Amino acid sequence: MARNDVSRILWPPARPSFLLKIHVPAEATMEGIKSISSMGVYPVAAFGLLGIERLLYGYVYHFPSHFKTEVKKGTFGKAIQEEPLYWKCFMQLGIYVKVFQYSVCSYDLLKRCTLTNPIWDAANAGDSSVFLDQVTSSQGKNFWAGLGLIGVGQFLNYSVFKALGGIGVYYGWELGYKVERVTAFPYNTGISDPQYWGVLSTIWGVYIALGASSMQTAWIETFWYIMSMKVIESPRGKKILEFLGFTNMG
């Protein structure tokens, strides 16, 4: 409980009678506070760090002229300033912010979660037969399902890059380059934003295959990517920005 919250309980002195009947040991209260605090720090930090990538994409999508101006000014660093192709500047920034995504997921999986999967268990046991026993048992179903999701996700990502090329993936059209309209796979399947679904499929596949004890980070990623598809990088997002007055960032 924060100091301000304590002061509100202790003041005014004439408290409601029901508060006088509640007796909570100080030790239990402090343990509860520590527990809540420890639970709350990671989700908030992960939510913010994982959102950086999606907000960057939304920024370039809605304000490409402003992005180009900032590149010329050297806002994103000298190396990016010296790159003559704006879509490659964006690509480089995209690689940089991926560090946040990889770092959060790696920390979550290796430090916060308990992992239960054939590879991990065999390594801990120092016995390769453990791997063979588990992959052929009912416990191996999640492992194979996770690998399947990873395969689907990476195939979608590969297909998007093959169809659009780097210039298409990194908003070449929005940044003023000629980009041909694509109707080849996976854009002829009816799947909207196949690259983003590919990323989500990969993330969920990793967590499921490794048998992670918590899917909290995967859900945070799902939130941000769906927000990108439905709001941040969409006409809805443009309407919201116009409503907030962000219309003259050129």
TrEMBL record:
<keyword id="KW-0443">Lipid metabolism</keyword>
<keyword id="KW-0444">Lipid biosynthesis</keyword>
<keyword id="KW-0594">Phospholipid biosynthesis</keyword>
<dbReference type="InterPro" id="IPR007318">
    <property type="entry name" value="Phopholipid_MeTrfase"/>
</dbReference>
<dbReference type="GO" id="GO:0005789">
    <property type="term" value="C:endoplasmic reticulum membrane"/>
</dbReference>
<keyword id="KW-0812">Transmembrane</keyword>
<keyword id="KW-0472">Membrane</keyword>
<comment type="pathway">
    <text>Lipid metabolism.</text>
</comment>
<dbReference type="Pfam" id="PF04191">
    <property type="entry name" value="PEMT"/>
</dbReference>
<keyword id="KW-1208">Phospholipid metabolism</keyword>
<protein>
    <recommendedName>
        <fullName>phosphatidyl-N-methylethanolamine N-methyltransferase</fullName>
        <ecNumber>2.1.1.71</ecNumber>
    </recommendedName>
</protein>
<keyword id="KW-1133">Transmembrane helix</keyword>
<dbReference type="GO" id="GO:0032259">
    <property type="term" value="P:methylation"/>
</dbReference>
<dbReference type="InterPro" id="IPR024960">
    <property type="entry name" value="PEMT/MFAP"/>
</dbReference>
<keyword id="KW-0808">Transferase</keyword>
<dbReference type="GO" id="GO:0000773">
    <property type="term" value="F:phosphatidyl-N-methylethanolamine N-methyltransferase activity"/>
</dbReference>
<dbReference type="GO" id="GO:0006656">
    <property type="term" value="P:phosphatidylcholine biosynthetic process"/>
</dbReference>
<keyword id="KW-0256">Endoplasmic reticulum</keyword>
<keyword id="KW-0489">Methyltransferase</keyword>
<comment type="pathway">
    <text>Phospholipid metabolism; phosphatidylcholine biosynthesis.</text>
</comment>
<keyword id="KW-0949">S-adenosyl-L-methionine</keyword>
